[in-house]
Amino acid sequence: MMYPILCKVRYESLHEIFSQRDVWKQILFSIFINWIIAPFLMLGLAWAFLPDKPELRIGLILVGLARCIAMVLIWNGLAGGDAEYCAILVAINSILQMALYAPMSVFFISVISGEEGSLEVSYSTVATSVAVFLGIPLGAAIITRFSLRKMAGSEWYERVFLRIISPWSLIGLLYTILILFASQGHQVVHQIVSVVRVAAPLIVYFVIIFFATLLVSRHAGFGYPLSTTQSFTAASNNFELAIAVAITTFGPSSDQALAATVGPLIEVPVLLGLVYLLRWVSDRWNWKN
């Protein structure tokens, strides 16, 4: 699912992007939104909606701290965002995630929230998630791009190869949605009240962080592609990591794991809807031009 999107990234031109002063403003803005604003927003919503459910609250906090390193490439591609900037932000979030996710989880859950009991988040769990969901497809895409462009030429690569593999991103996304709902259907049906209570703050979170980032980006004059990339990077979460940590730390049948599992069930349809809403709004406002 990530592979076709990553094959479109112009890795050979990234050094030129990094040489621009504006790119560092984009990076700092993204880090501020992703690692300060978004986690505290999720923390506040978790307490506001689930004051009597500490287990579900912990699961939501784990989701809020897990910044997206994979699915955002899909949303960004579907909405027409900047692929190169998105790849840069994903790479930075991956590095920061391996360094910050474990200590920030302890800080937000044990220190700020004051939850009883010890919380131990394994660095190996975080690193494995990053390697599997980003490292493998990224490595394959880089090898594919440089090898095929050298053997068959850049024109064939851009006009033929990318056109062949591009539809598989959307096919992979639809398959992911199908698998998620099929695998979690039993849990959703039998704990519907908890699912609804977790879904409410998640929906509010996605809408607030997305549109707040979009409005600030547009007001700052970032333009449609960069504003789109920043907004979807801020709104997306690494639910695979949150689920893995919740299951490893609290058990597969825990409420923490349930809350983390509800995350993708809400995130995928909400962000897919935001993709088409953003495209409609941009056409109506003639923003892309």
Could you please say which CATH topology applies here? Na+/H+ antiporter like fold
- Cα separation of the termini: 29 Å
Which descriptor suits the 3D outline? globular
**Regarding CATH, which class?**
Mainly Alpha
The proportion of residues forming helix, as a percent range, comes to over 70%
- What is the typical, i.e. mean, pLDDT? 85
What would CATH call the architecture?
Up-down Bundle
Tell me the β content: under 5%
Give helix and strand order, one letter per element, not per position: HHHHHHHHHHHHH
Radius of gyration, in angstroms, nearest whole number: 19 Å
Uncertain regions spanning at least 5 consecutive residues? none
Largest sheet: none
Model description:
Its main location: membrane. Keywords: Arsenical resistance, Cell membrane, Membrane, Transmembrane, Transmembrane helix, Transport. InterPro entries: Arsenical-R_Acr3, BilAc:Na_symport/Acr3, Na+/solute_symporter_sf. One of its GO terms (cellular component) is plasma membrane. With 289 residues, the chain is mainly α. The chain contains 13 helices and no strands. It has helices at residues 2-7, 14-18, 21-49, 54-65, 71-79, 83-112, 123-152, 154-165, 167-190, 192-219, 224-235, 239-250, 255-285. The two termini are 29 Å apart. The model has no long low-confidence stretch (mean pLDDT 85).
